[in-house]
Amino acid sequence: MKRWFAVIGDPIAHSKSPAMHNGWFDELNIDATYIPIHVKSEQLEQAIASLKTLGASGWNVTIPHKQAIIPFLDELDEMAEKMGAVNTVVRTADGKLKGYNTDGPGFVHSLEEAVGDGQKEKSVLLIGAGGAARGIAFALQFYGYRNLTITNRTVAKAEEIIRELGEGQALSLAEAEQRLDEFGIIIQCTSAGLANGEFSLPLSLEKLQQGTIVADIVYNPLMTPFLLEAQKKDAIVVTGLGMFVHQGAIAFNHWLGQYPNTEHTTKKLIDELQVTTC
Ligand code: ATR
Questions:
Q1: Mean of the pLDDT values across residues 192-214?
Q2: What is residue 275's predicted lDDT score, i.e. its pLDDT?
Q3: Mean of pLDDT values over 115-126
Q4: Parallel, antiparallel, or unpaired for β 75-76 and 185-188?
Q5: CA-CA to 201 of 20 to 30 Å: which in 110, 150, 224, 226?
Q6: Which of 66, 122, 157, 232 is catalytic?
Q7: 198 confidence band (pLDDT: 50, 70, 90)
Q8: Nearest CA residue ID for atom 8, ligand 1
């Protein structure tokens, strides 16, 4: 019987996940399909019951349901539990629903795909302390990056994540700006500059050292104002697209036990994004 998967969220129409997963099913000759389903917050419980009844093998969860879905699941993977957010649900062989979070691990896979996995001793600066930054902070720690600093407009939120991690330091944006030359990897996880085409950086890159690895989690546009500024200072830039592709690939692997070809998918998405953003 054909298996089926889904992504639930609000809004959902612009999700690139269906094309990506259906492409992988075709490439790997897997008899399955993946569909987007528009689910509003007040419909979440009913939507999960329907996904179960109708036999979905698993699904992705996007904004605004990543935290709200947790009470409806039977089990959580260790990292999803720490992060307090789920983006992937697996229907296990005994019909139970298990939640995972592949966003943070997706970022680490993408970083290591771009610059190798020999950077774990470097001092990492994470800018932002919202849901995305939180997931990346826990994943970095899990994969052995132990030298972590978090800076955020609201410093108390950065301090809270550091407290939960049990290691690292929190800084104000002004302090981080002054000490920018101390970091070997800088990761932009805020939504600064996303609204209404406004151009703003969460902090100045004046003190950025040449050769620093600078990543952004936003992938549309592919080269964000933050990455463009970093590129001018000869940083090694890592776009947010890899994180998106790898969070999907890790979810796919949880469902089907196979890691799909991410290189090919990334190239296809880069072409699409360049066409749609020009
Ligand atoms: P997400 O789930 O994408 O992480 P979020 O939880 O709303 O979204 O978090 C947004 C992040 O962007 C926060 O770190 C926020 O800073 P505050 O915690 O101080 O609100 C940060 N952010 C948003 N706009 C910003 C701006 N103009 N300058 C600096 N940081 C900004």
A1: 86
A2: 66
A3: 96
A4: unpaired
A5: 110
A6: 66
A7: low
A8: 130
For 197, the token pair is 């085409």
For the sheet containing 236-238, what is the strand order?
Answer: 169-171, 148-151, 124-127, 185-188, 213-216, 236-238
Mean pLDDT of all residues belonging to the chain:
94
Residue entry with tokens 């950025």 = 208
Q: CB of 128 closer than 6 A to ligand 1? A: yes
Over residues 131-185, the pLDDT tens digits come to 999 999 999 999 999 999 999 999 999 999 999 999 999 999 999 999 999 999 9
Amino acid at the residue 171: L
Count of Cβ atoms closer than 10 Å to residue 23 Cβ: 17
- Nearest CA residue ID for atom 13, ligand 1: 130
